[in-house]
Amino acid sequence: MTFGADEMEFLRSHGIARLATLGEDDQPDVVPVACEFDGAYFWVGGSGESVLRTRKVSNVRAGRRKVALVVDDLPSFDPFVARGIRVYGVADGPVERVGMVGPGLYLRITPHVSWSWNMAGEPVGATWYETRRAVHDGSGSGADDLS
């Protein structure tokens, strides 16, 4: 199973995410990033050589390639409405490409597991939102299990 149509629409309509990488001292580092989803991979990066000096790129280049990515929003406080997708994956790169912020160097993130909640944008009820979990095949072309 791959991302559902509602998840794909959500991911493509949000250009900001939070990316967590692991530093050399085993300290997680999370930063807001411009993020593009092409239907198979997530792309995070930017223009110029300065992107090579960022912690996220340094961590991945040092072989700490496991990452976590969250794309979410809070469309309403009253009533309370929260939506989001969390992704665990593996980052490669940086790769030269033209992306949402122009030509530059980008990390390519292959999703392995994702969790989504409230893609329909419903107000929270008596219980918290049900979560959809998908296990992706790691090729960037889809998923092979849903649980």
From TrEMBL:
Pfam families: PNPOx_N. Residues 9-91 form the Pyridoxamine 5'-phosphate oxidase N-terminal domain. It comes from the Bacteria. NCBIfam families: PPOX_MSMEG_5819 (TIGR04023). This is Pyridoxamine 5'-phosphate oxidase N-terminal domain-containing protein.
